[in-house]
Amino acid sequence: MAKSKVYFTNMRTSFNENLPQKLERLIKTAGIGSIDFDKKYAAIKIHFGEPGNLAFLRPNYAAVVAKVVKELGGKPFLTDCNTLYVGGRKNALDHIDAAYQNGFSPFSTGCHVIIADGLKGTDEALVPVEGGVYVREAKIGQAIMDADIVISLNHFKGHEATGFGGALKNLGMGCGSRAGKMEMHSAGKPYVEQEPCIGCGRCIKICAHDAPSITDRKASIDHDKCVGCGRCIGVCPMDAVQPAGDESNDILNKKIAEYTWAVVHGRPSFHISLVVDVSPYCDCHAENDVPIVPNVGMFASFDPVALDQACADAVNKQPVMAGSILSEREHIHHDHFTDTTPVTNWHVAIEHAEKMGLGSSEYELIEI
């Protein structure tokens, strides 16, 4: 089997070419033009950044990808799904506000922002996962599944639960609806925190299985009836309904791989990762810490598995950034991500994605 091609360019510029122009040259050289975009909807999956975080990708990069898609005849839109946790992106209105606040508007990027799982994170497509070990039916944001083509534009960085966040994380976790995110994070079923609950009954109205009930103006969920769909999480106005959040990191990584399969299977996809501002934790944080390594460069491939492997290898070749959290850790694992967060093992997602047929960890790195 031939190695997957991963294209790479560093962050050096010249008087004749700036970084957005260099990104355009990278993705065109990597073959994005071989996809038939003519009159087709192209979902550009990106993380807009939690308000307060400054490590997310600049909107200038998204503008480049949207421009190229338009030149090829496509109809691009920037997209993400609502978050499971309580924060600045838990519903579509707040999420769009956050995107605009961080610079992602139609005026700066040349395309619109669509929150794929709708107002409350309940607009989802149920996608069968062939060969799935942990996921039988992935819950993916409807607008993402309505698209003809998927492009992942990833900020490659560390992550406290998965080791790092790259193409697989951006697509698998990022494209899951709120219920889908609950399925990936939880081995159990949602529960109700009693103090914030106001007994409004919205969880009862949304449930098709009569699992929630109200006693003394406080809701509770009967886990014998609950099927774990997570819709009650989306409709609760007080964020009292919470996921169990008890899944192991290894199984979380495997579920992410299976959700990624659901997103890309059966349609064209293309993947771009920028290994810059490599913060130790996810852009879902309302803050970002000092990068753990210097900026590396930009990568692109048709293979998300090879892309993640190439980015991880590139990061692990870098010196540790002085003053970062990684500089304070023991370097006993000889792996920057595991040394940053020792409870994680990012190899699990790569290996499971290979088994799912998503791609190969064997790659040829082509520098431009």
UniProtKB/TrEMBL annotation:
InterPro entries: 4Fe4S_Fe-S-bd, 4Fe4S_Fe_S_CS, DUF362, PSI_iron-sulfur_center. GO terms for molecular function: 4 iron, 4 sulfur cluster binding; metal ion binding. It comes from the Bacteria. It holds the Pfam family DUF362. Transmembrane segments: none annotated. Residues 188-216, 217-246 form the 4Fe-4S ferredoxin-type domain. PANTHER family: 4FE-4S FERREDOXIN-TYPE DOMAIN-CONTAINING PROTEIN (PTHR24960:SF83), PHOTOSYSTEM I IRON-SULFUR CENTER-RELATED (PTHR24960). Ferredoxins are iron-sulfur proteins that transfer electrons in a wide variety of metabolic reactions. This is Ferredoxin. It comes from Acetivibrio ethanolgignens. The lineage of its organism: Bacteria, Bacillati, Bacillota, Clostridia, Eubacteriales.
